[in-house]
Every structure is written in C-alpha cells, then in structure tokens.
Amino acid sequence: MPSTHFAGHTAKRAPQQTRGRERVSAILDACATLLANRGATQLTMHGLAKEANTSIGSLYHFFADKQAVLHALGVRHLESIAAITHKLQQVSETTWRELPAEGVIDYLMMPILRYIETHPDFMLMISSGFASGQLRAPELRKDIEHIYDHVLAIRMPTATDVQRGRRVKTLMGMPLGLLQMALENDAFKRELLLEEAPAALAAYLRSIELG
C-alpha cells in the first residue's frame, strides 16, 4: 500500500468478509460521486449513507468520520496509480530506447493522465486547493521520478545528473500546470489532459533529445 499523507483521518479495521468489502467499495464509490459533484465541504456522513444505499450505522461501522472515508478513497486511488507505476517498471530498456518521443509519452504518462481525467474526484484530491487537505504520496512520487530519470538516462546517456534531474522536474511539472487549468475549465478538461498535455510533453522531449 502506498504511504500517504491526508489530513486528519481516523481509520477502522478493514473488512475481512466479501460482503463487508463490497459495502466499503460502495461507500467509496458514493464518496467519489459526491465529491466530484458537490465538493468536500458538502460531503456528510448521512449523504454518503444515502448515496451508497446503506444505513448510517453500517457506515459508522466501517468509518469513524467523513475524513476517514476520504482517506480510504485516497488510498484506493494511490493504489491504482502504484499499479500503473509497477507496469512501467517492467518496460524493457530496448523499448524505451527505440520508441519515438510520442510513444514514450504514451507509455510513460498517458495511463496516469487518463486515470486522472476519468476520476474527477481524484483530480480534486491532488490539487493544492482541496478543502480537506491535499492528498500526498511522497514515496509514490519518488518512484515516478525514478522511472522518469531511468528513461531519460537510457535515451540521453550523455546528459549529466543535474541536467536529467531538471528535465525530470519539467516533465512532471508541465502536466500539473495543465491539471490546474483543467480544474478551472471543465468544458475542455478532457482536451487539456489527453490532447494538449501529451502534445506539449512530446514536443519538449524531442527538443531536449535533439539538443
């Protein structure tokens, strides 16, 4: 499980039975829906119970408070991102070396960008302005940085550690700026994340490789 930081959660024991796990999953699905549609400030335990079609007593059986539900939802998202990262770690050096710039971006970044675009609640949770405290996963972030550094080392073997580190930060930072724009412009959120971001990243990668 990824190490996470999420302000003020109170966890209870995870359910061991299938029925309990399904109920928890339904609660987290309900939390994601309400969070995306109404925001964290309008999220209540009674509203969660109603959306999940469960009793308030059942909800409190699994979660002590709203913040605990948000924490569990965040962990579920980060586990999904960690699974994407694990797949990237299995890509061969030959593949990374031979792909065109667009192919590298498609392998390296598009799975995460697609995940963010299809999970608007996660997009909110990782933004700095999230009302309940930004979701953070420093160890997962380091893993992603390590993969980016690994790929650049393969494709640009003459680059120095300092150059590579700067370029890794740029590759990670560019989508974050577009993510903020997507939060502010819902009408073309999908285009920003799935069209403009990969085009900009591929152009940047080609530029530094030619330079």
From TrEMBL:
SUPFAM superfamilies: Homeodomain-like. InterPro entries: Homeodomain-like_sf, HTH-type_TetR-like_transc_reg, HTH_TetR. Keywords: DNA-binding. It comes from Pseudomonas typographi. Residues 21-81 form the HTH tetR-type domain. Residues 1-21 are annotated as: Disordered. Gene3D superfamilies: Tetracycline Repressor, domain 2. The keyword DNA-binding applies. Coiled coil: none annotated. This is TetR/AcrR family transcriptional regulator. The keyword S-adenosyl-L-methionine does not apply. Residues 44-63 bind DNA. PROSITE patterns: HTH_TETR_2 (PS50977).
